[in-house]
Write a structure and sequence with these properties.
- The complex is a heterodimer.
- Chain A is built from 16 helices and no strands.
- Helix content of chain A is 73%, strand content 0%.
- By secondary structure, chain A is an all-alpha fold.
- Chain B has 13 helices and two strands; from the N terminus they run αββαααααααααααα.
- By secondary structure, chain B is mainly α.
- Chain B has two domains: 53 residues, no CATH class; 230 residues, MetI-like (MetI-like fold, Orthogonal Bundle).
- Chain B has a two-stranded antiparallel sheet with strand order 1-2.
- In chain B, a hairpin with a 7-residue loop joins strand 1 and strand 2.
- The N and C termini of chain B lie far apart (54 Å).
- The longest helix of chain B is centred in the N-terminal third of the chain and has 36 residues.
- In chain B, helix 4 packs across helix 7, helix 7 packs antiparallel against helix 10 and helix 12 packs antiparallel against helix 13.
- Classes of the chains: A mainly alpha, B mainly alpha.
């Protein structure tokens, strides 16, 4: 602590003020989260009448979400499960398929590789929202409206994931792969035991950004799912808030549940998030 | 060339993986792509076979004041958003340069906003902005005023821009910060000889040096403006008086409330083209070779 103050004193007044200002701003930026968590722990009647940190704390909002909300046809526990099921399935699939295809793109010579690369680049240029309506038509034709498949199948592979991993895999020396082949390693072994561990951070980045993107996805599940038992948390929470907006406490408790997995992932894997964010700079 | 069996199977595996990707995209990318084209020229209400209607969708959209209003709202949004987010992320980047301790904590606090869930923070801000919410209570206690953040047509877009700024300042700031870090210190040392006033130094030296990062931020910001959906859907529903009605909201409504997927598909194309053109304009007018600057 003394070292800290000594350091601060040595600085000019200007940077002293800037540091304080930045801490203040950082807390301001965190304020919505703090307010959300505190509101979720207070009875609805006290949320607006008390300051952020005053008043008694209770878990009744969470009890409401996981208990009585089901009687209002808002099965939050189920939707939490849906969100995890959909997000984990999509993330696993994207990571696995991207790793295999990226290995082919980066390390195997085959006819049409260049064209495939260009196709993927073209895919990444076009905005996904352009495909929302026709994708809905396809899902409808396949008879998949109101199913998990509607939310999972279209996202099983990702051009972005393939692209990111291809770029990284290219940097892995061929010697490693040749050595593995001499040991008669199978394709699966080369990808899982060699390429993935050697490119751990890019694999983590693809996994984390796919997870957050899928968990946070709102428009697509809103369109393809109207059955409350199939809804991910994001959509169920939105419909609940539309109908029972006055239940501020439970709405905030639901928001905490919706935000918490992403916040935890971010805090635990902050290194990869920072890396991933700066990767897009190139 | 000798037929090495190992090499042969390897190429086959590569091709097989490529075909796997292509088959998936044939169904979930090419097929919808074709439907996008068909829908744009069809009169269809989700049932039966689409009938060719030529340019009818275009004519109807040309007269659709709600849709053009929503594109105008993109410009209004940018009018609020760009100054706030550019000033904010620049300040964040400069600030980050000047702090020794706690840099990581501060950066993470700002970036946390960027990874959080759209539905969750939209709900939180709806409550924070509400007439009896904490923000208005604070303003009432200190200044004796309250502000109709989301309920007044002239304020609602500003409030949404404020939320989106909150979300992206950390991310954009990080981009600008990486640009600032890349400026060679010799350039500043050389500039010190002339001792220019701080503003001159900012506009003539620092900003031109991070031109490419600034353009990247501008492009991201414009893309966000055209693609915004969750925030207005959750916070205002496009109101009041359509003042926060964004293109994707109109597209969504057109397809699923008015049951006009053809028109909605064409809108999606127009939105994508408009967004693309905006980016081209930014690139053409602002991008310059740093060496000659």
């Amino acid at each position: 602590m003394t070292g800290f103050w000594a350091k601060l004193r040595r600085k000019t007044i200007g940077s002293w003020i800037i540091t304080l200002l930045m801490y203040g701003l950082a807390l301001t930026w965190l304020y919505p989260y703090i307010w959300m968590v505190m509101a979720s722990l207070k009875p609805t009647s006290e949320i607006f009448s008390h300051g952020v940190f005053s008043g008694g704390l209770t878990l009744e909002n969470y009890q409401f979400l996981f208990g009585s909300a089901a009687k209002l046809h808002r099965p939050f526990l189920g939707s939490l499960f849906n969100s995890f099921f959909i997000t984990l399935t999509v993330t696993t699939s994207v990571v696995v398929t991207s790793a295999f295809i990226a290995y082919a793109m980066a390390k195997i010579k085959f006819r049409g590789r260049e064209q495939l690369h260009n196709f993927i680049l073209f895919q990444m240029v076009l905005p996904a929202t352009m495909f929302t309506i026709p994708m809905f038509v396809l899902i409808k034709q396949l008879g998949l409206i109101n199913t998990y498949s509607a939310m999972i199948l279209p996202a099983l592979m990702s051009g972005w994931g393939v692209f990111m991993m291809t770029q990284a895999f290219k940097g892995t020396p061929n010697d490693y792969i040749d050595a593995a082949k001499l040991d008669r390693a199978s394709l699966r072994q080369i990808v899982f035991n060699l390429m993935v561990p050697l490119n751990k951070s890019i694999v983590a980045i693809v996994a984390l950004f796919t997870f957050t993107g899928t968990w946070d996805n709102f428009m697509w599940p809103l369109i393809v799912v109207s059955d409350v038992d199939k809804m991910p948390l994001s959509v169920l929470l939105a419909t609940f808030s539309r109908q029972y907006g006055d239940y501020v406490g439970p709405v905030m408790a639901g928001s905490v549940l919706q935000a918490l997995p992403l916040v935890l992932l971010f805090i635990i894997f902050r290194r990869y998030f920072l890396q991933g964010m700066s990767l897009t700079l190139k | 060339m000798t037929l090495k069996s190992g090499h042969l199977t390897e190429a086959h595996i590569g091709a097989a993986l490529a075909i796997l990707y292509l088959l998936f995209n044939l169904l979930f990318w090419v097929y919808p792509f074709l439907w996008l084209a068909i829908l744009s020229f069809s009169d269809w209400r989700f049932f039966g076979t689409p009938s060719f209607s030529g340019l009818k969708n275009i004519y109807i959209i040309l007269e659709d004041r709600e849709f053009w209003g929503s594109l105008w709202n993109v410009i209004r949004f940018l009018g609020f958003y760009l100054p706030m987010v550019l000033a904010g992320s620049l300040a964040f980047a400069f600030g980050l340069q000047h702090i020794g301790r706690g840099k990581v904590f501060i950066a993470l606090s700002f970036l946390l906003a960027n990874v959080s869930s759209g539905v969750a923070y939209s709900l939180v801000f709806t409550k924070i902005f509400s007439s009896t919410g904490p923000l208005n209570m604070f303003l009432l206690d200190w200044f004796g005023v309250t502000i109709p953040w989301l309920s007044s047509p002239s304020m609602a877009m500003f409030s949404i821009a404020l939320v989106v700024t909150w979300k992206f300042v950390g991310y954009y700031g990080l981009i600008l910060y990486s640009g600032l870090m890349a400026i060679p210190t010799e350039i500043y040392d050389a500039a010190k000889l002339d001792n220019p006033p701080p503003l001159t130094r900012l506009f003539r030296l620092t900003l031109p040096m991070i031109n490419s990062q600034l353009i990247l931020v501008l492009i991201f910001a414009v893309t966000v403006a055209f693609g915004i959906f969750t925030e207005p859907y959750m916070m205002t529903g496009g109101g009041p008086l359509e003042s926060t009605n964004m293109p994707l909201l109109v597209m969504y409504e057109t397809a699923f409330s008015r049951l006009q997927p053809g028109r909605a598909a064409l809108m999606a194309i127009i939105i994508a083209v408009a967004s693309y053109l905006a980016i081209v304009v930014i690139r053409k007018t602002l991008e310059k070779d740093v060496g000659s600057a």
